[in-house]
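Readers outside the structure-tokenisation community will struggle with the description of the input data as it stands. For illustration, here is how one protein appears when written out as sequence plus structure tokens:
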Amino acid sequence: MRKTTATPADVARRVGGIPTQPGRTEAGSVTDTMVAGDGGPVRPAAVHGVEAVAPGVIAGAGPVGRPGERPTVRLRDSGPEEQPRYAPEWLELREPADAAARAMDLLDPLRIRLANLPGRSGIAIHDLGCGTGSMGRWLAPRLDGPQHWVLHDRDPYLLHFAAVASPRAAADGSRVTVETRRGDVARLTPDALAGASLVTASALLDVLTREEIETLAAACAGAGCPALLTLSVAGRVELSAPDPLDQEIAAAFNDHQRHDGLLGPDAVNVACEAFADQGATVKVHPSPWRLGPENVGLTAQWLRGWVGAAVEERPELAERAEPYLAARLAACAAGDLHVTVHHSDLLALARPTGGAG
């Protein structure tokens, strides 16, 4: 995955609520951040110690892992350079827009499937690439019954955040517990989803390759569990007061997302094919961000990242992109800009194992 032109680090100072990191290693570890899929790359202020190993489970939030337990996901081979990480400040900034965008229409068929799972008292939900845990905060209070969430991410700091901030009660008041597993969800090992009732992910599909999506679909089919995969970019953006440069920026950004075999805006179509090939019933519903005056901070960060990635992809756009971005940011600050960033949510209902239909 390529690193994009960075957006200003001062978002880290403007957005509060990020918890203390769980530990430190030697000082001096600083990484760039790619918030892939939505055009919101952020390079936060220097953060040290992010590679410290967070506890596998937050005390009181779930069962403690066994010493020496083999991880069920492994890191993607990334060469000598560490894979870019997601900035928690950006993930927190986008969480309200994500929550408003997710497709509620997919919840009823999901609830029906979960209610009919064989031999289960409670459900086990694997959240792939959990980030700061926004999917759990959105979904857990909308499902009935006891839930155990298994949070997967490569970043121990984000896992710490997600576990600490996870909900503790389901829609009917049942207990919600959580555990964390560190690793890159791009490569699932065969037993990754053993015992899973549901797989979830948010803004993940577009940063996977075709092979990785096919592996995910096969893993869900093997476990007989549905998958709710939300907020994958659709490759379309609409801005108020249309400008001739809008489409050029969008096309360049989409091309940027497809580097290194990643699928970007093609991911949902590939995922539909992959899950259907595994015998799953697939439902897709639009889940656009609709950003207006109440989303000034998010819109400004998104604009910088969207334009920055486009210019990195096509440097010849730079001369025109600079005044374009300045004008769009001014309209944003004045509350005059409205943006629709199109996404899609996908629900794949795999054939259940154990004889249930």
Summary: Residues 154 and 183 are 4 Å apart (CA to CA).
